[in-house]
Amino acid sequence: MKPVTVEGKGKLRNFIALRRPIIEDWKHTLYLWKSTKLAMIGTVIVVIFILIAIFAPLIAPYDPISSNMNERLQPPSWNHLFGTDQFGRDIFSRVISGSRIELWIIFLVSSISGGLGAFLGIVAGYFGKFVDEFIMRITDMFLAFPSLVLAMAFAAALGPSLTNTIIAISVVGWTVFARLARAEAMKTKKQPYIEAIHALGAGNSRIMFLHVLPMCLSPLLVMLTLRMGTIILTAAGLGFLGLGVRPPLPEWGAMVSDGRSYLVAQWWISTFPGIAIAVVVLGFNFLGDGIRDIMDPRLRR
Amino acid sequence: MRGDLLDVKGLKVVFYTYRGIIKALNGVDFWMNSKERLGVIGETGCGKSVTALSIMGLIEQPGEIIGGDVYFKGKSMQKMSVNDLHDIRGKEISMIFQEPVSALNPVMKIGFQIAESISRAKNIRIKEAYPEVLKMLELVGINSKRTVNLYPHELSGGMAQRAMIAMALSSNPKLLIADEPTSALDVTIQAQIMELLDDLVKEMGNAVILITHDMGVAAEFCDKIAVMYAGNVVEYASTMDMFEKPLHPYTKGLLKAVPRIGQSKELVGIPGTVPDLVNPPTGCRFHPRCPYVMDKCSQEIPPLIEVSPGHNVACHLYTQEGEHHVN
Questions:
Q1: How would you classify the pairing of strands B224-229 and B232-238?
Q2: Domain B6-92+173-325, what architecture?
Q3: What one-character-per-residue DSSP string does B150-209 give?
Q4: Contact B102 A193 (CB under 8 A)
Q5: A66 to chain B, minimum CA–CA distance in Å?
Q6: The pTM is what?
Q7: Which fold has domain A38-300?
Q8: Does A18 touch chain B (CB under 8 A)?
Q9: What is the pLDDT of residues B48-102, one digit of tens each?
Q10: What are the domain boundaries of chain A?
Q11: A192 vs chain B: nearest CA distance in angstroms?
């Protein structure tokens, strides 16, 4: 820990010397990561999931959407790894391309609900009093409904489509982040340095977004990762109920629903997308738990 | 108007709490001219910091200013709009805090935090403020190139306080409020910081309010001293007068309680304890502890009156009726 400038030894050297503490910190994080087994498993699953989503068109052997009636309801074989469904579409290809849709949903829902929740929560926690009451009572109203039921209501009202699924899940999901950000903002607001910066003339918006927001980020990030599993589940649930993504698109929940009537004789239609959902949700939950442990300063020592 | 820079007139502040209403300030009176240095002395909880926050306009719920006013350069701060107050804070009045390390944002580099306050005061971009940051850091005696990229936890208390001073003085404010700037530092660093503050203020010509409970520091640094007790200014005079011939019984008691090297006698404390501000004593708030207490003391609040030129005291001993009691 000696952030001393190294004279005359090139810019890169200097750059590294100045940032030694940060590098050390990252090394420590990496060490903790490696020693937390579940976090490793979670990371591996999530990384594979993301890679599959990126390279989906290269991996999938068949077209996931166009039907082929000659090969309908085939059991798993080397030709069709996961078998085919009632329209002769290759389940393996559909699961693979489905990962793109799931990832897209996760990404958008996380940024919308996380952003909205963080913004409202910080505003509520920072100003307090009337603003706080107003925002938190709205939050309570959203929390009064079971989240899947509320998401269903929104999805049904908006009509089934990918965009509407994302809107529905985001509208339901922001409350958790709002509460978390509010708690953090209230805690940070009382810190002496906020009073100090106030005394030096900083305005409310500057304090909120430059000084309070960064202090809320780490719990918010953990919560985001923990919620990603739930987001997939909700999306799949909506798909299963026919309120989510429109039929030809290979959304995992909708695929499970497709195979319902064939479950006894052609088990593979529902099973493989179901396994995909389970594995990815598990992966995100492991990752979330791991990140929470790694970021906990008490466990860092 | 009594002082050309700052005039605090009968300031009353209360805090609404579960236990009841805390009467934190009960008509605080003092005034300052520009470039003057005022020391505010008093025990913990006598309202020194609340006074400072009121001057900054930073009293927030559950606190409230219920009476009196602060005039800064002749303008009433109670009547000022939020925007005007905002313009004064940081540009015209600046503040240094007790615990420098916790008064700096732990997740931001020192350089950025100073740049931020400079950029606001001078209306320039944060990036353009960096040359100024380096200059200020050198001015407070820190290796600027190194410190700019450090985080507050990487600094020692003394260095953090220097950085804080750089931040507060970067806008060259008319008035600098230093709220116990050296209480959290050890004695050698204290001396260094006070010396630094002395040099900088002499050079830049700021007025200073130094809040402290260290009589020695106040005696060395200040031109004038205000002694506070339980939310009142009980004595307000030039440093010389205050230490040469203290008038108020509380000031006398305080000065007797300061240990001196070579002193063989035991220290004399002031009997009793600081009153509970939810139910403060009636009349003069010091009367239950006062050795010269009279009937009048528990009935009437003594006003701050000028006894000799520049020497003000709030005590019934020096109002006309009490005159004969003095020695």
A1: antiparallel
A2: 3-Layer(aba) Sandwich (3.40)
A3: --GGGS-HHHHHHHHHHHHHTT--SEEEEESTTTTS-HHHHHHHHHHHHHHHHHHT-EEE
A4: yes
A5: 53
A6: 0.74
A7: MetI-like fold (1.10.3720)
A8: yes
A9: 888 888 888 888 778 888 888 888 888 888 888 888 888 888 788 888 888 888 8
A10: 1-35, 38-300
A11: 5
